[in-house]
Design goal:
Order of helices and strands: HHH
Protein name: Tc1-like transposase DDE domain-containing protein
GO molecular function: nucleic acid binding
Number of strands: 0
Number of helices: 3
Helix content: 55-70%
Distance between the termini: 26 Å
InterPro entries: RNaseH_sf (IPR036397), Transposase-MT_Hybrid (IPR052709)
Radius of gyration: 16 Å
Strand content: under 5%
Organism: Cryptotermes secundus
């Protein structure tokens, strides 16, 4: 794809797709629901992530490149939304 592999900077939530893309989506989808068991929560999260579709995941992956560039420009400083 012509991408350059860069060294990974220290952990940053703005560079972890699970933090900046997945968790907010799941939180929004399950907001206000109550679950009786851990298994019920796991099932709801799985269903939520399955219904998101491939375009959702593609956007998250491509956001990573943009967020990484912002981080590099800021010398690994935190990147706001």
């Amino acid at each position: 794809m012509g991408w350059e592999v860069l060294p990974h900077s220290s952990y940053s939530p703005d560079l972890a797709p699970s933090d900046y893309h997945l968790f907010g989506f799941v939180k929004d989808q399950l907001c206000g629901q109550h679950f009786e068991t851990r298994e019920a929560i796991q099932k709801a999260v799985r269903q939520c992530l399955l219904m998101a579709g491939t375009e959702f995941y593609r956007r998250g992956i491509f956001k990573l490149a943009e967020r990484r560039e912002k981080c590099v420009q800021r010398s690994d400083d935190y990147v706001e939304k």
